[in-house]
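Please check this:
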Amino acid sequence: MGLLNALRIQNSLIAMPEIDVTAAVGNTIEPYLNHLGYGDTSGFLSRQQAMTVPAVARARNIIAGTIASLPLSTYIEDTEAEVPSKPFIKQPDPSATRSNMLTWTVDDLIFYGVAYWQIMATSLQDGRVTQARRIDPTRVSMRTDQTTQVIQAWQVDGIEVPFKGVSSLIVFWGSDEGVLNRAGRTIRTAIELESAALRMAQEPVPQMILRNEGMNLPTDQKESLLNAFKLARKTRSTAYVEGAISLDVVGFDSAQLQLVEGRQHVAGEIARAMNIPAWFINAESASSTYSNVSAERRSLIDMSLRPIMDALESRLSQDDITPSGQCVEFELDDFLRGNPTERVDVLVKLLDAGVISIDEARALEDLSPRGNNVTE
């Protein structure tokens, strides 16, 4: 088989080896997180917990959804001329759409600071990757040397995988350790505030105590009194208490607790932690117009999306995926298009300068060609 592999005489659709999950050794997330500097993982915040916070979910959906919607193109590095992209760039996983694959890859980079694809097949001609599948980071661990600086092996579900070829991993390294570690306490605060808001919704008035200043009541009468009073609070705006029973109010109402203000403040902190302009997750104070949407999108690209886009572009441009001398980049022209007046002004100037033709101008506006060199 060594000679056959050397001659590339292999099936380009080699099946992935079956992984026996039951043979996995321990919880693979703990050594992985410890290696990245998470330290004690006993109180580690999970992605599922973080996504219960509306601000986190909205920020994640904006970042991941926007990047996944951007087209990927291949260019020659020296001339910047566009060339046809390989099928792998258009759809890495045959069982999933490109948008779905990229959405969850960006999700991993946001929350864990790293993302993994496992190679399913390579090309007969050049050995480059032709199919890959996203792997949940919590399934991946690494074996390092004593310095913990050199990775000696990657493991999926506790089983070592090769460094190259089928079953090996394509690793996308993010710019930091991920929001779960970087902003775990902030997200936990948001979760607690959400819990407090839920309790306040279930018990919209401060806690109350029925104080018996007379004879002690039997247990069944106490339960009956409490149940009747609770029912009265739900069905009427007032309740009646007679005899030696008095009503004491303890705790604070929602205004005194400042739940709205607290949640708003934490939402701003989450926006900072996730590197997204607060405008995008703070719809209450947002005021977008047609003229500033383009500027807001540019701000989103520069301040939030660019580091993740660079992580994806640089890895997809490496030689094991893209031929040497070529690079893969996201197309931003359509996403950053200005309003109609701005676009027309630019096209008129380009036409007057002879930079583009009528047909090229129409193509930029997604209009059908009407023929070159048409003069009125």
About this structure: Residues 30 and 176 are 18 Å apart (CA to CA). Residues 208-250 form one domain.
